[in-house]
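Dear colleague,

Thank you for sharing your sequence with our group. We've completed the structure prediction you requested, and as agreed, I am returning the results in plain text so they can be pasted directly into your records. Please verify that the sequence below matches your submission; if there's any discrepancy, let me know and we will rerun it promptly.
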Amino acid sequence: MLRKLNLKAYGKINLGLDVIRKREDGYHEVRMIMQTVSLFDTLELVILERPGIRLETNLTYLPVNEDNLAYKAAKLLLQEFKLRRGIRINLKKHIPVAAGMAGGSSDAAAVLYGVNRLFSLGLTTQQLMERGVKLGADVPYCILRGTALSEGIGEKLCALQSIPDCWILIAKPAVSVSTRLVYEKLRVDELSHHPDIDGMLDAIEKQELRGIADRMENVLETVTIPAYPIIEDIKNFMKEHGAMNSLMSGSGPTVFGLYDKEEDCRAAAAAMKKAGLAKLVYTTVPAPRRL
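Please find the predicted structure tokens below.
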């Protein structure tokens, strides 16, 4: 019987992010194109003979109780299936925290997947996604992974063909952004322009990297960039250093740039580090779909 499992929880970027409307229940209806990247947290899950959840992380400031999505994910399945044994989770964070890359949601998705396997619960991917949405709007996508169209509050997902091979420069400035506050300040009815999500879907189908890059837009920039102008500075820096286009991911503050050549991406990363615009700088590529 399987007693231990090692997993990777991949971060994501939003190639396009549109907000359609604010619903009466306070949630925002979105239309987004999501993409996992090969920047990941690692999780080791071990079955404990006694009930309970033990969460350990490599970052002292991260909560190790119910304020952590990974903990919540374990609790959700342990309680639902009335499991008598517990779980120890060793989480090593590499995805930037509070950065618009769904690091916490991806950790939760990996825990759901891992507990399902370790305890042989027999849940399908779809059933895991249905439980994931109770934890957060990005969790179902983080279970699915790859390239996907996300609609509703993020729970309606359609897997897409992978985007063409490319290189991705990721830069996070030394600020953290609250997703909740960004959505609260967003005035959907005042948006004068919306991203061409349908055009991007077409470009993905035709495998046109330039067509994808040209349509990269995120309406949340209208809130986050005025509050943190450094985001615009990083976007411009990437474009000045060879990016086909650059965009803020999610509610920010992380910015990514698409490159068709590895050497251009690495050169831009070196220049970004030298300029000191960002606290964290990574070069990566699109990630696979499978957990």
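Summary note from our side: DSSP finds ten helices and eleven strands in the chain.

Kind regards,
the structure core
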